[in-house]
Amino acid sequence: MGFMRWDFVVLVLVLLILSVAAEFCYGGRTSSFVRTANLSLDMPVDSDVFLVPPGYNAPQQVHITQGDHVGKGVIVSWVTPDEPGSNTVIYWAENNTTLKKQDDGIVLTYNYFNYTSGYIHHCTIKGLEFDTKYYYEVGIGNTTRQFWFITPPEVGPDVPYTFGLIGDLGQTYDSNRTLTHYELNPAKGKTVLFVGDLSYADDYPFHDNIRWDTWGRFTERNVAYQPWIWTAGNHELDFDPEIGESIPFKPYENRYHVPYEASYSTSPFWYSIKRASA
Ligand SMILES: *[C@@H]1O[C@H](CO)[C@@H](O)[C@H](O)[C@H]1NC(C)=O
Ligand SMILES: *[C@@H]1O[C@H](CO)[C@@H](O)[C@H](O)[C@H]1NC(C)=O
Ligand SMILES: *[C@@H]1O[C@H](CO)[C@@H](O)[C@H](O)[C@H]1NC(C)=O
Ligand SMILES: *[C@@H]1O[C@H](CO)[C@@H](O)[C@H](O)[C@H]1NC(C)=O
Ligand SMILES: *[C@@H]1O[C@H](CO)[C@@H](O)[C@H](O)[C@H]1NC(C)=O
Ligand SMILES: *[C@@H]1O[C@H](CO)[C@@H](O)[C@H](O)[C@H]1NC(C)=O
Known about the structure:
Largest sheet: 4 strands, antiparallel
Structural class: alpha+beta
Shape: globular
Strand order of the largest sheet: 1-2-8-5
Family: Belongs to the metallophosphoesterase superfamily. Purple acid phosphatase family.
Radius of gyration: 22 Å
Strand content: 15-25%
Protein name: Purple acid phosphatase
Number of helices: 4
Number of strands: 13
Oligomer: single chain
Bound molecules: 2-acetamido-2-deoxy-beta-D-glucopyranose
Signal peptide: 1-22
Organism: Acer negundo (Box elder)
GO molecular function: acid phosphatase activity; metal ion binding
């Protein structure tokens, strides 16, 4: 008691050295972007980014993610609003247009408080070639829509590949700016690692799940053409026993499927993939 403790002295010294180091350690500025003081507002439901595609039962909210462990598979997901329609995805390699293949997926719906979802389709395509552009078509029968994606190169330690990193996106005017910023980046990101917090529908009264649909339509312009690798954040919980919703992650889990079984995981909230050099 009453003595100066040596570990305390060492701690103070370390802090001193660190703070001096911090003075001289300036990481530089990578962007001229400065965040404004005010939070940007959510885009209204009738915004251009939320437009419903024309045509009876036209597929909307089209999104893809990796569908196997190494990048030769893709999970294609979409929503049809009027009737279940077809679960089939037709796809072909760009340099082999005569050979069209097709796979069938599943369709599901869910209820959340007084909301009933559209028909949510998920179809896993496997056995693709690496480094190849594929076209794909959904909505067969009534209104078809066509998109494309490029598979990654084979997994290896030094394979060049560019990932984007987006999280906390939401659907404000700033969310739209963030997505545009990513799209216009000269580095041309090929896959997004999405670090959680997708739609922010949970900010609305009764977690208005219509805001999950608007988010799906907003992001389609990118995620229909390149995979976004999903992780769930706290805003995906949608846990609200007071309105009878006590199954956590219900909207997220129904809408965003991930290839968790390919890494022998038992839960979609915990999985791994390999892609190019990552
Ligand atoms: C932020 O909002 C306040 C109150 O609405 C407004 O007076 C101010 O001009 C806004 N600032 C910016 C940078 O938009
Ligand atoms: C390309 O098409 C030919 C037949 O036209 C087929 O034998 C070959 O396996 C196809 N390759 C791919 C990558 O689909
Ligand atoms: C759900 O309930 C809320 C609150 O009563 C109401 O504002 C909303 O219009 C309802 N939505 C549907 C689809 O019935
Ligand atoms: C298609 O093109 C890719 C390169 O984009 C190539 O790797 C692949 O072998 C080609 N497949 C066929 C069947 O020609
Ligand atoms: C949509 O397609 C289904 C199955 O082919 C068909 O039974 C139905 O009549 C079509 N609906 C319209 C409005 O074309
Ligand atoms: C969103 O961004 C796109 C592309 O920059 C633009 O065309 C569109 O008008 C924007 N919409 C809103 C509601 O900000």
